[in-house]
Amino acid sequence: DSGVTQTPKHLITATGQRVTLRCSPRSGDLSVYWYQQSLDQGLQFLIQYYNGEERAKGNILERFSAQQFPDLHSELNLSSLELGDSALYFCASSVVSGHEQYFGPGTRLTVT
Amino acid sequence: DQQVKQNSPSLSVQEGRISILNCDYTNSMFDYFLWYKKYPAEGPTFLISISSIKDKNEDGRFTVFLNKSAKHLSLHIVPSQPGDSAVYFCAAIGEEGAQKLVFGQGTRLTINP
Fold it and tell me: How many beta-carbon pairs under 8 angstroms link A with B?
């Protein structure tokens, strides 16, 4: 158990819909990262927040957005969902930005 | 553009022997490297890391070697155990100051009894 929690574990929704994925980092970790794992792309970095502020951005679609709240939990919002958005979405956290990241169990999103 | 490459999709090793997983990278700006282990339906689990100023780091049965001139790193597991069967990902940090992990495609390790 990494100490990072993610909800929900599974999510099935239709194209065009909007969903919110939630992540709680390990106690004391200020950085939260979001990654997407799809079959053909492997694990891809989406976005990082550090103590409430956006710190780094990867290949995140404009339909996707994220935020980190004062209690340090983070939410990833995915809108206008397409079939290709079906993937595993992982959240990770770290104490010092740029070093070891600890991953949650992931949310499996299926868009039908 | 695959900046971190794991060229072996799979590896099969006898229990008790050494497992060697390899990883190559192309970006010389990377300055920190990590290995993660992943079981199905779980998130990646951090195993071991190495800074670019070192060439070896050891933690129990796991040793990571870094050859900067060849842009190559490897993970050695000795002795291999059945519980080591999983997908192993190599990852790198440090491109242009970003904190994102850049992952390889993974190697599926199977330990045979």
Answer: 60
